[in-house]
Here is the input.
Amino acid sequence: MRIDECVALVTGANRGLGAAFARMLLKRGARRVYAGVRDPATVTDAGVVPIRLDVTDPDQVADAAERCADVTLLINNAGVLADSPLLAAPSMEAGRAEMEVNYFGTLSMCRAFAPVLRRNGGGAMVNVLSAASFFTNPAMGSYAASKAAAWALTNGARVELRRQGTQVVAVHSGYIDTDMAARVTDTKASPETVATTTLDALEAGAEEVLADERTRQIKTAVPTDLATIYPAIQQTWDRRTPSSGRS
Here is the structure.
């Protein structure tokens, strides 16, 4: 797909990776870029068209699909991270919130905009996932579960939409230097680098983006994950949690 002259909608485009996508799209010649955000007043980049959009609100999603009927590129970037384990969390509230945004919100947007893309010649759909789609660190276990579900959704949507000519791209990345990873001290990719890599891959016809070296290593290890990924995760988890008291 060509970025030049496309009409794009980016969810969560008021900061971080979403804002980088919006700026990069305009720089590369997009004819119009909609920023789907909960509060349109938070969109400050010149040339970006703010649209009130909470991806968990069916009415707002339907309204966005009607108002943005010229979209040829949908970038599902909106997401939340609660840093919540699966079993040790005090409740399932955080896990439900992550699933509502990261999985059901993405699914809702895909369903609403698939007909829009079809009417406009096919276009493309980009789902921002995570290296955590491929494995589960229990410290953020419910986030990983939501991203794994979104990965499955992306693969299924690709099959369903191929006949209408819609390119469906999964973007996986490790830590990105945004507010979501503000407390992380490990190496982080810049939002601009991830956005550029993704748009390059989109124009090249790719269906998957592994945006950094760590993500590429993790994806390679998936077939042997029980031996190559989880032992280190287990050691880290055991160090940070108290003994269960078993003898």
The first helix runs from residue 16 to 27. The first strand starts at residue 7 and ends at 11. The chain has a mean pLDDT of 94.
